[in-house]
Design brief:
Oligomer: single chain
Strand content: over 45%
Number of strands: 16
Number of helices: 0
CATH architecture: Sandwich
Order of helices and strands: EEEEEEEEEEEEEEEE
Shape: globular
Structural class: mainly beta
Length: about 190
């Protein structure tokens, strides 16, 4: 699946194997639009594949988060002001599971992650104007993290995302990336 991806803000250091993407973040990278801080940033690293219409995407993410706002996960993007990023972000002295939904302005939903933040998985489904975000510690059980309205678009970019607003040097490994038809599982089906 990585062979379908293209960079938005290509990092200086990265490598690609058939089923693995390794990235080391550049300094001062982030995605954010205005809310609370008053600034806009569209400098984070995003390796997106274009998908036509609704989809379900899954990704495994491995990293050691150390500095404030170190983050890695997955992004779904329509344009610079319409996107969602989700994953682990270092905040309040620990790795937190969070998501930022942006439609002109960014929100931020975050909470403690009870699994091993150094190795986790994300699943994002976009269907009929709704985004469903799930996270998994083992790839078997997928609790719901967020359910939100999301703009309907003819195409989306979806793929790995990582940023370090306060430093450079977060090493991230992405594997098990897939994009397919939208999941038909019931909302509380954790499989």
């Amino acid at each position: 699946m990585f062979d379908r991806c293209h960079w938005t803000n290509e990092p200086a250091r990265w490598s690609l194997a058939p089923e693995r993407l390794d990235v080391v973040t550049d300094e001062g990278t982030d995605f954010w639009q205005r809310t609370h801080y008053g600034f806009s940033r569209d400098s984070g690293h995003f390796f997106g594949a274009r998908t036509a219409g609704d989809f379900t995407a899954e990704l495994r993410i491995r990293a050691n988060y150390e500095a404030l706002y170190d983050q890695a996960g997955m992004m779904v993007r329509v344009d610079a002001e319409t996107w969602v990023k989700a994953g682990i972000e270092h905040s309040d002295g620990r790795p937190m599971l969070g998501s930022v939904l942006t439609t002109g302005q960014s929100d931020w939903a975050t909470g403690p992650y009870e699994g091993d933040a150094r190795d986790f998985r994300l699943r994002i489904t976009v269907q009929a104007g709704v985004l469903r975000l799930q996270a998994s510690a083992d790839g078997k059980v997928w609790p719901l993290v967020r359910l939100a309205p999301f703009p309907v678009a003819e195409t989306y970019l979806v793929g790995p995302m990582c940023c370090t607003p306060e430093r450079a040097g977060l090493a991230v490994t992405f594997t098990d990336f897939s994009i397919g038809p939208p999941s038909q599982r019931a909302l509380h089906d954790l499989s």
